[in-house]
Specification:
The chain is of the alpha/beta class. It contains 10 helices and 13 strands. A hairpin with a 2-residue loop joins strand 11 (about 250-255) and strand 12.
Length: about 300
């Protein structure tokens, strides 16, 4: 890599999925648009999560499976920056690394792809595919009669499995579906109140080495302040709840002027026990609001729910 006082070339690391490559190319385009002499190389990195698509659901949910190898490449200086789906990032960033920018948030909602035009129209006892414990818990809390089938893979694979497995539909993130220009396949959107999104859903995060001031300055110019405040509140909530992808937790913050509203969900895997709560406060207290809401939920029965989830 040739990086001097004036940066001429950067290597950007990402997963190799179609959606990850779209996101990486979008970041590369932004960097080159603002620095016309900059050359950006996108490097595909295979992660542990990409290798174990047939593993048990809990294993797929292990924290960091889709970022570890990318972060190692960053620490070893094989790449200069990493582009992630923010929802894949563990709440603890490895020493020597930092999140230097959060992109403008795409639609954070979850969507249903299938024949039903609403949650109520899914047939009683219908089969719905999802590999997400968060979606599983919330969907069963709303429709306990449904049969949930574990499916995983990229957006194209999961949509294809609707037909192959005879499912009534599947749930996906609107952001990914829209970025891949498959919006016409969406049957209906869940509101953020009935299906609280994953922490960071819809946001692209750019990770850099903590001591690399030049690269940090390069990417921080593309930080979106509202996204950054919202995600910091969400990640503070999740960290206090000791959550990762393997725990049914949802957290979604919105910014309204100088005020931040944070919604959250915590539930059992079967959705039989759940807590939905929210908090509102000053924008500059984003992380503190996340911690306060987590405490409220723990005191309202969250400790017992988390203990039961860990046992399972």
């Amino acid at each position: 890599m040739s990086i001097g006082p004036t940066i001429k070339y950067v290597a950007l690391g990402t997963r190799g999925s179609e959606l990850a490559m779209y996101q990486a190319q979008a970041v590369a385009w932004l960097l080159q648009k603002s620095h016309v002499e900059l050359s950006v190389k996108v490097k595909k990195i295979v992660t542990s999560g990409d290798k174990i698509q047939d593993a048990p659901l809990a294993r797929i949910g292990d924290v960091g499976l889709f970022v570890k190898e990318i972060e190692n490449a960053l620490l070893e200086e094989d790449i200069d920056l990493a582009v992630h789906s923010c929802k894949d990032l563990p709440t603890d960033v490895p020493g020597g690394l930092e999140i230097s920018a959060y992109g403008l948030r795409e639609d954070p909602r979850d969507v249903f792809i299938g024949s039903a035009a609403s949650l109520e129209e899914i047939p009683r006892g219908g089969k719905v595919g999802t590999s997400s414990l968060r979606r599983r818990s919330q969907l069963l809390s709303l429709r306990p009669d449904l049969e949930l089938v574990d499916i995983r893979g990229n957006v194209d694979t999961r949509i294809r499995k609707i037909r192959e497995l005879g499912l009534d539909g599947t749930l996906l993130a609107a952001a990914g579906v829209k970025r891949l220009e498959r919006e016409d396949e969406i049957a209906f959107y869940f509101s953020v109140d009935e299906m609280v999104p994953a922490v960071g859903q819809g946001v692209i995060a750019i990770e850099t080495r903590a001591g690399d001031a030049a690269i940090r300055k390069l990417v921080s110019a593309h930080n979106h302040d509202d996204s950054a405040h919202a995600v910091r509140a969400e990640r503070a909530l999740m960290k206090r709840l000791e959550g990762g992808c393997q725990v049914p937790i949802g957290g979604h913050a919105t910014v309204h002027g100088s005020t931040l509203l944070l919604r959250a969900y915590l539930g059992s895997i079967d959705g039989s026990r759940s807590i939905r709560d929210r908090i509102e406060g000053p924008l500059e207290e984003a992380e503190e609001l996340g911690l306060r809401l987590a405490e409220q939920m723990l005191e309202a029965g969250g400790e017992e729910i988390l203990a039961a989830v860990r046992e399972q």
